[in-house]
Write a structure and sequence with these properties.
- The protein is 24% helix and 25% strand.
- The chain is an alpha+beta fold.
- It has 2 domains: 39-50 and 123-315, 3-Layer(aba) Sandwich (Rossmann fold), CATH 3.40.50; 58-121 and 317-355, Immunoglobulin-like.
- It is globular and about 50 Å long.
- The two termini are 34 Å apart.
Length: 364
C-alpha cells in the first residue's frame, strides 16, 4: 500500500513521541466497541519510545509497602517497588512448585535486598502473540496459526491477549482482549507478503503494553511470544537499541525461531550456521536479558509443544517484590540476581535488571 495512511471516519490522527509522525487512533465518541482501540492499524517503520516498565510498580497512594504475603494481587506504595516474575526449574527443566517468599534471595548490584512482597498464586497475564507474516512464511503459517490457537486455549478467563503481525510493515491486528474468539480470528487473518521487520515488530509489541489500561495498584504479568523464521531485513532500529528498549520495558520476550525442513535442506551448512549464530544470537540475548527463554524447534510439528511449554512457564511463575536499598533515581541500569539458597537444585530465572528512574516515572 503506497502513500500516506488514510484515517477513516471512526478514527483520528494523533501525534507520537517522534517529531513529525502520527498514528491513527479511534475516536472516543459513539458506542463502545471491542477491541476499544487500534484495531488493524498499520504502522510502517515507526519507532515508539513510550514504553511501559512492566516490572516496576509505583502506584502513589498509601505510605507503606505491604509485608511479605502470598495471595494479594493488588498493592500500593509511594516508593519504588521492583517486582520480578521468576521462573524456577530444576536440573531437568521441570517447574519447581511450593516455594515460599523466604526461599528467595534477591541481589541488586551485588547487594542483598529484603523481599517485601511475594505471590505464588496465578497472577493474570497480558500477552502479545507476535507473528511473522513475511513471504518466507509460506508453507509454515498454517501450523503456526494452529499452535497459536492452542496457546489461546490455555489462557485463563482473567488473562488478556493481543495479536501483532509483521512483514515489511507491522500491524496490530487485535488489541488486548479476554475474548478468545477475537484472538482466534486475528490469528487466522494473517496475510503473507513482504520482508521481515522483526525488530520493529518487537518495538510495537512493547509499546502496546504502555497503552493498556490498568487499575491502580493492579498486579499483572506480561510477555511477548514471538514467532519468526528469519533475520531482520526491514527495520530502522539496530540490535543494540532494541536490546536497550527491551531492558527498559521489562517485558519477557519468548522468541521461537523456525526453519522448515525444506528450507533447511536448501541451505548450505555454512548458511545454516550463519543464521544460527547471527539472528539466533540476538534472539537468545533478548530472551536472557528479559528473563525468558528462546526456542529453536527443528520441526514445525514441534510448535504446539513449544507454545504449550511457554504457557505452562508463565502460569507457574512466582512474583517477588522489593524496595531498593539504594533509592537514588540516577537512571543507571541496576543488575538483578535471584538465588534460592534452600534449594540448591533450583535454577531461578528473571530479567537481568532495570533502569532506576524513581516511582511514578517511565524508564528512560
Amino acid at each position: 500500500m503506497a502513500g500516506a495512511q488514510r484515517c477513516p471516519d471512526t478514527c483520528r490522527m494523533a501525534p507520537t513521541d517522534i517529531p513529525g509522525t502520527r498514528i491513527a487512533v479511534p475516536r472516543v465518541d459513539g458506542p463502545p466497541r471491542v477491541p476499544r482501540w487500534k484495531e488493524n492499524v498499520v504502522v510502517r517503520r515507526v519507532l515508539f519510545v513510550s514504553l511501559w516498565l512492566g516490572g516496576t510498580l509505583a502506584a502513589a497512594a498509601q505510605d507503606q509497602v505491604p509485608p511479605l504475603a502470598g495471595a494479594s494481587t493488588t498493592f500500593r506504595s509511594t516508593v519504588e517497588v521492583v517486582t520480578l516474575n521468576v521462573t524456577v526449574t530444576d536440573i531437568e527443566g521441570r517447574q519447581v512448585a511450593g516455594l515460599k517468599g523466604d526461599d528467595f534471595e534477591v541481589l541488586e548490584d551485588g547487594v542483598r535486598q529484603e523481599v517485601r512482597f511475594f505471590n505464588a498464586i496465578n497472577i493474570p497475564l497480558d500477552v502479545v502473540l507476535l507473528i511473522d507474516t513475511s513471504s518466507s512464511m509460506r508453507g509454515k503459517i498454517e501450523m503456526v496459526q494452529a499452535a497459536a490457537r492452542e496457546f489461546v486455549k490455555k489462557l485463563r478467563p482473567s488473562d488478556r491477549g493481543a495479536v501483532v503481525t509483521f512483514n515489511s510493515a507491522v500491524r496490530v491486528v487485535q488489541s488486548f482482549t479476554e475474548d478468545a474468539a477475537l484472538l482466534d480470528g486475528a490469528i487466522n487473518s494473517a496475510r503473507l507478503g513482504g520482508g521481515t521487520a522483526l525488530y520493529t515488530g518487537i518495538y510495537v509489541s512493547l509499546d502496546h503494553f504502555s497503552r493498556l489500561a490498568r487499575r491502580e495498584g493492579e498486579l499483572r504479568k506480561s510477555a511477548v511470544v514471538l514467532l519468526s523464521d528469519g533475520e531482520d531485513t526491514g527495520s530502522l532500529i539496530g540490535e543494540e537499541d532494541l536490546l536497550e528498549r527491551a531492558r527498559r520495558a521489562g517485558v519477557p520476550i519468548y522468541p521461537i525461531s523456525v526453519i522448515s525442513e525444506s528450507d533447511r535442506n536448501a541451505l548450505t551448512l555454512a548458511n545454516q550456521q550463519r543464521m544460527r549464530t547471527g539472528a539466533d544470537f540476538t534472539l537468545r540475548t533478548l530472551a536472557r536479558e528479559t528473563g525468558a527463554t528462546a526456542f529453536f524447534p527443528m520441526k514445525l510439528a514441534d510448535l504446539a509443544g513449544v507454545y504449550g511449554q511457554i504457557a505452562g512457564e508463565l502460569a507457574a511463575q512466582y512474583s517477588v517484590g522489593y524496595v531498593p536499598s539504594a533509592p537514588t533515581a540516577n537512571g543507571a541500569f541496576r543488575r538483578i540476581l535471584v538465588r534460592i539458597p534452600t534449594r540448591p537444585d533450583a535454577k531461578p530465572r528473571t530479567r537481568a535488571g532495570y533502569y532506576a528512574t524513581g516511582p511514578g516515572r517511565a524508564a528512560r
